[in-house]
Each structure stands twice: as C-alpha cells, then as structure tokens.
Amino acid sequence: MAKLIQNRRVATDNWLLLKPQGDSLPAVPATGNVIAPLALWRAQREALLARQAEGARTGVWLTDTDGPEALVELLGQDLKRLPLIALNFPKFSNGRNLSTARLLRERHGYSGELRAVGDVQRDQLLGMYRCGIDSFALRDDQDAEDALAAFDELPVAYQASAIQPLPLFRRQPGDAGGARSAEKAS
Amino acid sequence: MYIYDDIDQRVLDQRVEQFRGQVQRFLAGSLGEEEFRGLRLRNGVYIQRHAPMFRTAVPYGLISSQQLRKHAHLARTYDRGYAHFSTRQNIQYNWPKLEDIPTMLAELASVQMHAIQTSGNCIRNITADHFGGVAKDEIVDSFVWCEIIRQWSTFHPEFNWLPRKFKIAVNGAVADRVAVHAHDIGLHAVRDERDEVGFKVVIGGGLGRTPIVGPLIRDFLPWPHLLTYLEAALRVYNRYGRRDNIFKARIKILVKEMGTEKFRNEVEAEWALLKDGPNTLTEAEVKRVESRFTRPTYLTLPEHDAGLAQKLAADTAFRNWHGRNVTPHKVPGYAAVTLSLKKTGVPTGDATAEQMEAMADLADRYSAGEARVSHEQNVILADVRQSDLYEVWQAAKALGFATPNIGLLTNIICCPGGDFCSLANAKSIPVAQAIQERFDDLDYLHDIGEVDLNISGCMNACGHHHVGHIGILGVDKNGEEWYQVEIGGNQGEIRPGVGASLGKVIGPSFARAEVPDVIERLIDCYLARRDSEAERFIEVVRRIGIEPFKESVYGKADPKSPRGNRQLAAA
User: Fold this and answer.
1) Is the ipTM of this complex over 0.85?
2) pTM of the predicted model over 0.90
3) Coil, strand or helix: which one is B225?
C-alpha cells in the first residue's frame, strides 16, 4: 500500500490502482475499490458506473496526456458521481496534470476526491493542493508525517487557484488566504 | 522602486524558510540529488564548473542603492569580492557555498530582494526596457506591468513545473528595447485609437539552438485582460508543450509545430473561458501597484541646460561620452546615463563589490537612489539632472564606467563562457577582450557607428549571438574551440523599419586568434559599402545581403573550401 495523505492527514489507502497489462485491459475484481485507467472506462462505461457499491467503488486515472476533456466527453454529467479521479505524475518535474486538476475543479465542477499518483513527493504537495488535488499517494521513500509540513510552507499566495477563488488583489481583509492591508504607500 | 507591503514581505520571508528547509534536508541526505536539483533551480542555484552559481533576481532590472550595497556585501562576504551582471537583468555569484545560500537569501529579503524563479522550468524574472518611466517615447511605465506580472507568476501553482523555462518581457515605449520577438512571450504596450492601453502579444520567439523570431499572436490585448490571457497561453503550453525532448520543449517549438494559426486559436479558445473572470485586472489594483513605486521629485528645469551646452562645446571627450552614453529624458532638464561595464580588459558584466558600492553612491548623489541593470549588461542612472552630467562623467571616468561605447562595437554582450560555465563549448570572454583591444581607437570606433556585437560560448545562446548585428558562437570541433560568425541579426525594432531578425552564418568557423581579423574585415566591407555615415552596419547588411561580407572575409573562393580559411590565417 502506498503512503497516503488525504485532506492534509495521513490516511490508509483502500484503493487499488489497476494498471494495463501490456496491451490488454486489466480485469476488475468483484470487490474492493479500484482506480481504472481511462481505456477501461471507454470499454466498460456502464458496468463501471454501476459498480459503485460500498467497498466496491470505481474511480478513474488519467495519464499526463489524457486530459480532462476526454473524461468529460465520456462521462458527461456522470463525472460528478465519480468517487475518485487519480492524476498520474510520471515524473515530479512534469506538471501537465496540474492543469488537468484545475480544469476538473474549476471548469468541470468535479468535487470528489482528486488524487495525485506516480512520482509524488513532499515538495510537490503544496502546488498540487492549490491546483485542487486533495489526496496524495506518496512515492515509497517519502515520510508522510514529515510531508504534512509542506502544506503550511507558503501560506500567502498572490494568485487565484482551485482552493482560492480570488487573486490577492480582489480579497478583502478577513478573506481566507490573506488580503492587502489598507495602509497607503509611503 | 516598488516598495513591498507586509504581504509582499511575508511571501519572501516564507520562501527563505522553505528553501532553508530544503537545503537542510538535502545536506542531511533525506532529499535526493535529482529532486533537490529541481528545487534549488527554482531559487537560482546551479551547480557549476567551480562551485554553485547563485543568481539573484533584479525584477525588471530596477535596483536601489541600498540593494546594490547589499549585493556588494554579499560579494565580499560570501564570494570573491565581485559579481556578474547577466543578460537577463540578474546578478550572479560564481563562488558561493551551498550552505551559505539560505543566509544570503535572508540578507536579500531584508532589502526586498530574492532569487525566486531565476532558474528552472518556470516563469522567470520579467524583463523590461531599461528606460522604463523616463523614455521620451514612453507609452506606459513598463515597470508597473512587470510588477503585476511578477506577483501573478510568483509561485503560480499551475505553472511551476512547465516543460521548459519561460521568459516574459514587457516593452513600454515605441522603440523595442527588450527584444520583444526573442521571448517566450513578448508584450509591447500600445494605445488604441481611443487612447486605451493594451499590449501587442508575441508568443514563441527565442534564441538558443532553435532561434525563432516570435510571431504576433494578438495585436491588441486591452490591459484588464493581461493576466487572463497570460494564464490561457501558459495553460496551452503546460498542456501541449513537449516533454519528451528537452531541446524541443520551449513554447516556440509548440507554436512552430502547431502552426501560428492553430496555436492562436487554442489560446483564444482557452482565454474565452477565463476572460472577465476573477483574474481580470482592476483599475484599483493597477493604481495600487503604481502608487507603491517611488518616483523622483523632479524640479522644473529648462529643456536644455546652458552649462551643459558650454561643457559640450569645450570638451571633446565629454562630448563623445555624452553622444554615446546619455539618453534624452521625458522630463525637461533631465537625462539618463549609461554606466558602461564594458571596459576593455574586464570580463563583460563583471563588477567588484567596490564598484557596486560606487554605483550606489552615484545613484544616491545624482539619480534618486535608483539604478537599472540593462540586458546589455550595463547600469543606468535614469534620473540625472543635465547640470550634473559633467560631474557624473568625471566620477564615472574615475571609476572606469565611462567608456563611451554604448551602442558601439565594443559594447559587447557576452556570456560567461568556458571560463565559468559548464555548458560552454568555448571561451567567450577572451574573444570579447581581443575584439575590444583591436578596436580601441575611439575615433575609429565612433566612425564605425552603431554595431551590436554579441558572443555566446555555446548554442544555448546566453550571449544572444543570433540577434547581434554581428554574432559569434563558440563551437567545439574535436575538442578544439572554434568560432562561427553570423551577421544580419537584430534584437528588435529600436529604429523604425529595422525589425527583429536572426543572423546568417557567413561560412566555416575560425580559430580564436583569427576572430579580430574577421571582425575587422566585416567592418572594412561595411565602411566601403555604406552610402553615408548615417547608414548603420545592420542597414547595409539588409540592403546588400551577406555575400559581399563573405567575400571580404574568405576571399572570392568558395567559402566551403579550406582555402578561404588559409587565406585568412595568412592575412
């Protein structure tokens, strides 16, 4: 089991990431929560949508090149019923799915669990979190307890983001994320 | 200067502590080499040939005397007593210790400076025209827009792990002094027929190993939409830019492979969904940023200072310097002075701690305590009273900053090259010095007139050789250092009608010792062919093409044949 951080807490991972076996699609077990690749969803859309019983839920994972549009096109309004979408980061330096995360949250209205999988490590967490990712399957060598500190490293952000609808220049004193004080330039 | 408020300062202080933690984890072994590389680069720390190289940001090139003194202090305390002014309006240290860098950052933060995003595959320091706020041909004060973009791009969560580095430049005047077409995004301020401010948006230009003159993507972007448009462009790049090959990862390759039209459509489609959203700039925010910039209190002075006119008439050396190193100012009675860091015998862009302090003193005494670092690696005092110019000249002369060569052949843009940089194929500094020595006769230099000569030690093109009127590129041939020469490049439309272009290689490369001869032959050809003293080198190349220049360098023989080279070596 991968080390998991969920909503800024160390958590137990009870999801199984299904990986394609060469060219063939992975088989879906009868029970257990699974994260199925997009290709499997394409092949078995209805069956997977129906497979959402307690202890036998189905999520989806996107590679860095799948993009959110393919998923939206496939699932339409059913997207919002997905319990989990995982975004793969093949290398920590590949930020392509950061855009996917923001689009899923801010454009396509997805509010379920959004999980980073792949080369996920401490110093990526804060940026991912601000893009709307709330669950992190950490790389094996990472210390999950230690990684929690990353979320508090840069409390003030200039930009709007998935967790902050307003840029700093539109925030009022008292808004989350801080605001400019009213003092005048000297 | 933009004066930080408590929030700006907190952002900086947080970052210092975050980086201190990262360095500690690396030194303790809990953060791997490769991961740390990605993190340290985002704070300007490279591992170079001799030691870490540390690059501090001088946002849009604007620096206060206090900040200059801080840099001098860092050079003296943590380095070998000098620093290097880069072509990206940054300052670099070549010899610091990694474990000292968090403390250097804390010292910088105490004067509202940092090294945020000075390297790595993220949005880099925004560059601006170095006469921002004072140029006679000003459209907007570029610094205000740069600061707005700086804040938007600082730790932008979505664009911190881009396919490759990303450089944005803002030009606020009619003349293009930032090389708008040589950036990932170049913004050129314009006013429409109703006098509304907006930007021409150029995307996908760049130098490096695939030099491209960036195409115009939008001819007028009204200012409120600046950030939403940038966000759309960056998002298209982050999503579709190549990550499979580092040499094809810049946005210019995406624009080229997609085609300008399709790329434009992608950006516009994304923008349509972001337009008028919360990132739309407000007049209040622009005013707020503007109001946090300190500006000099100008006196009411006559347009031309009578004393200055007398001194100019009486002193030829002063007149020469004034002709090259002084630029007219939008406020009557003032002028902008360029301090040349291109004295023969000194590595281009290097300044000692004492020199930085001397610059700070000059800025305090004569120019409202501010200076600007230009991408041509000089330092500008932008707000000097005309009546002080003679004194400033004398002081600059005593300090070795008064070489009257701004715009001339010896005002060479040059990367650190093989003496310092682990990427370089060849040394560049000794080549610059040899050329400066060859052309040390000032009368001759002034007669030749304006020539941009740029030198890069490798195809990464940090010395911008593609856009020099004459460009020199260090190449490696079987372990030996050779130099390729190109002509006809131009960084941007500084003069109307002579737009940005890339140089063309004139033929086979040369040994280092031959380079000054080659330059001399190019100049001889130019002098023989120009129709008047007003026709600049670049204009002659545009008019007659590169063939006559080739012939004057290689002789009439086919430049591909080795005889061309031999003739030259014998010359």
Assistant:
1) yes
2) yes
3) helix
